[in-house]
Amino acid sequence: MVTAIVFIKADVARIPEVAERVAAIEGVSEVYSVTGSLDLIAMIRVAHHDDLATVIPDHVNRVPGVLSTETHIAFRTYSTHDLEAAFSLGADDGI
Predict the structure, then answer these.
(1) Mean residue pLDDT across the chain
(2) How far apart (Å, rounded) are the C-alpha atoms in residues 65 and 91?
(3) Are 43 and 1 in contact (CB under 8 A)?
(4) 68: which residues sit within 8 A by CB, 6+ positions away?
(5) Which residue has the higher pLDDT, 79 or 64?
(6) So which residues are the signal peptide here (predicted)?
(7) Rounded to whole angstroms, how far apart are CA atoms 36 and 61?
(8) What is the pLDDT at residue 55?
């Protein structure tokens, strides 16, 4: 499994639409709207490194309203629990 984290800058007026269209792409496991200099972060999980070339430039970058992307490929996951906690902002975890 290859994981890539894609930072997406989008047309502000189209962020919800862009997020939904990106989330519908095969290989995209999650899309988060975020604060800061980015608009969205997409988690891409594919079987092979070469599949990233299909998912990101051929699909994500072609969604209307996507202005730019920056891709980071993950080398290793150190803790599934920590990863889930980091991306579950606002979830009720009983604390």
Answers:
(1) 89
(2) 28
(3) no
(4) 8, 9
(5) 64
(6) none
(7) 20
(8) 97
Cβ partners under 8 Å of residue 33, min gap 6:
15, 19, 39, 40
Residue 73 makes CB contacts below 8 A (sequence gap 6+) with 2, 3, 4, 49, 52
The yes-or-no verdict on residue 30 having pLDDT over 50 is yes
Tens of pLDDT, residue by residue over 48-78, are 999 999 999 999 999 999 999 999 999 988 7
Max Cα–Cα distance, the chain, nearest Å: 42
**Contact 49/17 with Cβ under 8 angstroms?**
no
Model confidence at 90: pLDDT above 60: no
Both tokens of residue 21? Answer: 């269209």
CA 79 to CA 59: how far, in whole Å? 29
Both tokens of 90, joined, read 């606002």
pTM: 0.81
Local structure of 15: helix, strand or coil: helix
Nearest Cα residue to 68 out of 16, 24, 13, 10: 10
